Amino acid sequence: MKEHTRRLYAAASVLGLVEHGSLDDNFHILVHRITGKYHVSDLTVTEAGKVEAELNRMLVSQGLYKPKQREDIPDMMTGKQQAMAWKLTYILTELDGNTETTVSQRLAGAVWKTLGVTAPPSNPLRWVRKDDGIKLIEALKKIVANAEKKRKKKS
Fold first, then answer.
1. How many angstroms separate the CA atoms of 142 and 136, rounded?
2. Residue 26: which of 3, 2, 58, 49 has the closest Cα?
């Protein structure tokens, strides 16, 4: 979660929303408006993602940020497949609450376990082919479904 907190504060600083030492600055007001929470450290992965999406939208609208356009490489995972794999991994991280591994490490582990491909955590989907991407996404969907079942049993 520290990784999210840093990114949120960095984006908010670029936008001039952060007043250091203040919980009443525009950044914290934005966080509260989106999530209903006052402290960034209290955000879940999903909530942090929503705040980050809003900050990115603000950065783009002010011309301070240009989103990366992923070029689809023939026979490799498409941008949409990659986005789905990342989304499922973030959902899984939130469901099981494991904070010991980063989302990137978790996705690299899923690539290795599902496909037998050793992937670097810095870019875990780099060497995944399109047809293997389908297998990976289906495996992640099953893992997420199992995690949801476990969570329901606990509550």
1. 10
2. 58
Q: What is the tens place of the pLDDT at every residue in 26-79?
A: 999 999 999 999 888 898 888 888 898 899 888 888 887 766 666 678 899 998
| Angle of the 45-61 helix axis to the 26-35 helix axis, nearest 10 | 130
Q: How far apart are CA 53 and CA 133, in angstroms?
A: 25
CA distance 152 to 133: 29
Residue 107: φ, ψ to 5°: -65, -40
The identity of residue 25, as a single letter, is: D
pTM of this prediction exceeds 0.70? no
The DSSP result for 82-132, as a single string, is: HHHHHHHHHHHHHHH---SS-HHHHHHHHHHHHH-----TTSTTTT-BHHH
Residue 110: count of CB within 10 angstroms of its CB: 20
Contacts of 125 (CB under 8 A, 6+ apart): 77, 82, 85, 107, 111, 119, 133
Neighbouring residues of 59: CB distance < 8 A, sequence distance ≥ 6: 11, 14, 15, 65
Per-domain residue ranges of the chain: 2-61, 79-154
